[in-house]
Amino acid sequence: MKTQDVRIYTAQRLDWLWALRDNQRRAELAKLRRGVGHAPGDLPELWGSFLRGMPESFQGRSAPSAAEWAVYLALTLYAMHQQGNDQPMNRPGNTLGRAVRQLAERNTPAGQDWTEASVLRRFNALATAEEITEISHHLRGMIQLLSAAKDGGIPLDYPQLAADLYELQCTDPRYAQIPANVRLRWGQDLYRDSKPAPEENEKEN
Fold first, then answer.
1. Alpha helices in the chain (DSSP H)
2. Residue 120: which residues within 8 A CB-CB, separation 6 or more?
3. How many other C-beta atoms lie within 10 A of the C-beta of residue 60?
4. In whole angstroms, what is the distance from residue 132 CA to residue 177 CA?
5. Tell me: the pLDDT tens digits for 69-87?
6. Which of 12, 13, 41, 126 is in the most buried spot, having the most CB atoms within 10 Å?
7. Torsions phi, psi of 5, nearest 5?
8. DSSP per position, 14-43
9. C-alpha–C-alpha distance, residues 205 and 185, integer Å
10. How far apart are CA 29 and CA 9, in angstroms?
């Protein structure tokens, strides 16, 4: 499995984007956004955006590899997420499950349980999708919601998203549990209590 390599390469491409001058970065992000909804390799103008410096071991033969899909989706969806948001929408540690929890809490009226938020139905559809184009479709809708969240866009850890997308495509019988483990992590992050535990002396009072 190349999971760590996929994460590192995606982070390198994002670092490269942010090192560009403002006008160059805007142009590159606009180009990447045109790739949303397409398969890797469909648009020759994007080849350099996600293939430059890519390890040869990532590259597919007769079709895009799992690594190429993972990197391509992470970069094009990041470009869509960043549009209209002044702050960087890539944030290490803010995994997909955490981001969706934040979105659900923001969208829930006072006095109601965030677990009843409609956004969770869309997240469940994403979590149960199996084929990469179906995953891409549901993920696109989720990123649109994160980008347009009230009180400002909710950022996402895009290198980790790329790693998750890579592992979701695993078909090697030796690693049959890996896609299920990705979905379990999403659920764990979704339901993890982000509030700090009370101090011992507070418990006693």
1. 3-19, 22-33, 47-51, 66-82, 96-107, 119-128, 132-147, 158-168, 178-191, 200-204
2. 100, 104
3. 13
4. 17
5. 999 999 999 999 999 888 8
6. 13
7. -65, -40
8. HHHHHHS-HHHHHHHHHHHHTTTTS-TTS-
9. 35
10. 17
